[in-house]
Amino acid sequence: MRTVTVRNVKIGEGMPKICVPITGITKEEILREAEALKHTPVDLVEWRVDWFASCFDKDAIQEVGKQLREQLLEIPILFTFRTAKEGGETQIEENQYQKLLLDAIQTGQFDLVDIELLMGEEIINPLIKKAKEEKVITILSNHDFYKTPQKEEMISTLKKMEQLGADIAKIAVMPKSKQDVLTLLLATEEVNEKEDRIPIITMSMAGDGVISRLCGEVFGSAVTFGCMEKASAPGQVKAEQLHTVLEILHNVMSQ
Hints:
Radius of gyration: 17 Å
Oligomer: single chain
Strand order of the largest sheet: 9-8-7-6-5-4-3-10-11
Number of strands: 11
Mean pLDDT: 94
Largest sheet: 9 strands, parallel
Number of helices: 8
């Protein structure tokens, strides 16, 4: 398995890395959340730009990005605009989405960028090309808030993300039963067994799926998403609690 190194964080090795989203609406709220994260066990910070009131203002994004970079020091920053159809806060047209991400990639403020798979190759390909030129890590993502697809479909989705040139592949699904959670974990384990694959991030959402956020080191999910107070997706665990459980599992597995 290949690993991805972002600043001093190696994704795909050891304990799953903890990523905590920033979901402030104003610049002041965003920077307050960033300050609090400096005292939280976190490996990556995701700025959920779709929550930002000025999310379509290029200069405002660059200004906040610059201040986040200064405030978070060497903590890698993931730039994410989650579209409404994938659980985000704001509607956006496809071409507008592409331009917003291209601008973010070129600011030099962000280490990683999330690109939604459902945007299609016409939108995705130029983004991945530009990200590689700018040495920004790409996460291709897909979120299903209604169901858990069949195991073979989830495996196929993760493989397609790699074929499109993603550095990291991510899926999040909604379980309708505990069996659905097991299906997600089995798909994760099967992809994880493949040699020379990119790191993957998988999760089953809501209460039934919380185990999938904790056992990534067992099944092969390289990053898990936690929260401080306000969750950005169903089933997120507070970062401090998440770190405690991940550390316990890691220590036992290392014996």
